[in-house]
């Protein structure tokens, strides 16, 4: 099964053997691909089955639909990636998908974020990684796999050497499995991206943060690490600063939504002065204030030549800190993306950043602000661009639709003609 025709044929046979009506959504997407193949030859297919596209479906993929997918795709070589986000797959369906990944030798990416499975489903998906040698990207964000599921993935990463990106953020991970993951990644060199956002932590001692910083010191494979809502304080930022100076592999560090103040930012700015491998630093929704922004501005304006993207939204930064950041852009040509909304603007801030926007030092798609004038006075407003813009959701209309998202069809509104009767009186 290496083309859409054979895939569709097997799908129909499977539904007939199971005495099921063809699942509407799956059938529709396969037929859509068949129509496209009449004008465009494709060697592989992305099977889009996301449940949040209202123009494609009003139904959601269920556990029984997962069984149909298992029997249709187990030996399939045409489908290389599957998008199952925002559906109603439970533990039973996740176990079925685990069996699919055990048998299939072609699927490289699967997205099952924001479904309804828990520890048993997460464990089944982790166990398939013990034998699977083709899967590169696995996204389970928003499924409450808990400590049991997290420990299963820590065990799997001891064996698997092909998975490159794992997203188990917002999954109710606990301290135990976080420490296990950090310990395993001291030796694992194949994983390039890890998301463990919003764990369930019952301590303020930052033990998980300390283990991750120790891992960063020796890990030579990880390029992207997301520790959003990690209850991190200045101690955690200190530990990161101490160990990041030994790491030239990590390019993206997400410390969004923590409790880092100016003291922690001061230490991180010292790392930026040393020009490590960091290209993206997300410090949004922390507490750096003006002093923290001044530390960053000094590092960016006078020393750093590697950082490309910085997020400092909602950090209680005033005009002093923001103007310092704007001035730093005059002396730095590497930083091309900057996100600052949610701080305190005045006329000086509006003028400073509007100049960068008008001279295209900051392009519209690389920042979260745009400028406008009312009654001769300059203002800044928030634009629609944010960091990781299409990770959780993407539009179906307009110029900002990514390649993987299926565009919505534009329907003209019905034109109603109302007869006008002239009043001769």
Automatic annotation (TrEMBL):
Q: Does the keyword Ubl conjugation apply?
A: no
Which SUPFAM superfamilies does the annotation name? RNI-like
The protein, known as = Leucine-rich repeat-containing protein 34
What InterPro entries does the record tag this protein with?
Leu-rich_rpt (IPR001611), LRR-containing_regulator (IPR052201), LRR_dom_sf (IPR032675)
Give the source's domain of life in one word.
Eukaryota
Q: Which organism is it from?
A: Candidula unifasciata
Q: What UniProt keywords are attached to this protein's entry?
A: Repeat
Q: Which Pfam families does the record cross-reference, listed alphabetically?
A: LRR_6
């Amino acid at each position: 099964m290496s083309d859409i025709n054979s895939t569709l044929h097997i799908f129909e046979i499977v539904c007939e053997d199971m005495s099921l009506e063809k699942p509407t959504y799956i059938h529709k997407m396969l037929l859509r691909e068949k129509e496209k193949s009449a004008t465009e030859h494709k060697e592989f297919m992305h099977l889009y089955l996301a449940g949040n596209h209202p123009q494609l479906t009003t139904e959601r993929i269920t556990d029984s639909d997962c069984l149909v997918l298992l029997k249709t795709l187990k030996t399939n070589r045409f489908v290389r990636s599957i998008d199952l986000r925002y559906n109603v797959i439970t533990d039973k369906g996740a176990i079925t998908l685990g069996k699919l990944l055990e048998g299939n030798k072609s699927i490289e990416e699967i997205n099952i974020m924001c479904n309804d499975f828990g520890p048993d489903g997460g464990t089944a998906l982790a166990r398939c990684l013990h034998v699977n040698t083709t899967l590169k990207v696995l996204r389970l964000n928003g499924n409450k796999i808990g400590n049991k599921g997290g420990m299963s993935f820590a065990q799997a990463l001891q064996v698997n050497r092909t998975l490159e990106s794992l997203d188990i953020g917002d999954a109710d991970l606990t301290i135990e499995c976080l420490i296990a993951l950090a310990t395993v990644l001291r030796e694992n060199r194949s994983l390039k991206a890890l998301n463990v956002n919003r764990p369930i932590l019952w301590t303020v001692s930052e033990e998980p943060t300390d283990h991750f910083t120790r891992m960063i010191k020796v890990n030579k494979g990880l390029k992207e690490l997301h520790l959003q809502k990690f209850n991190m304080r200045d101690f955690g930022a200190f530990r990161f600063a101490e160990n990041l100076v030994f790491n030239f592999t990590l390019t993206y560090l997400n410390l969004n939504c923590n409790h880092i103040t100016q003291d922690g930012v001061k230490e991180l700015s010292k790392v930026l002065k040393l020009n490590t491998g960091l290209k993206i630093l997300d410090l949004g929704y922390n507490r750096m204030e003006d002093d923290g922004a001044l530390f960053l501005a000094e590092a960016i304006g006078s020393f750093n030549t590697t950082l490309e993207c910085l997020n400092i939204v909602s950090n209680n930064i005033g005009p002093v800190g923001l103007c310092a950041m704007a001035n730093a852009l005059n002396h730095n040509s590497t930083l091309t993306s900057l996100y600052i909304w949610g701080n305190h603007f005045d006329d000086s801030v509006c003028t400073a950043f509007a100049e960068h926007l008008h001279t295209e030092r900051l392009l519209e798609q690389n920042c979260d602000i745009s400028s406008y004038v009312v009654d001769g006075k300059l203002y800044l407003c928030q634009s629609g661009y944010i960091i990781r813009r299409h990770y959780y959701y993407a539009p179906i209309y307009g110029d900002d639709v990514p390649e993987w998202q299926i565009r919505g069809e534009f329907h003209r509104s019905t034109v109603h003609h109302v007869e006008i009767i002239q009043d001769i009186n």
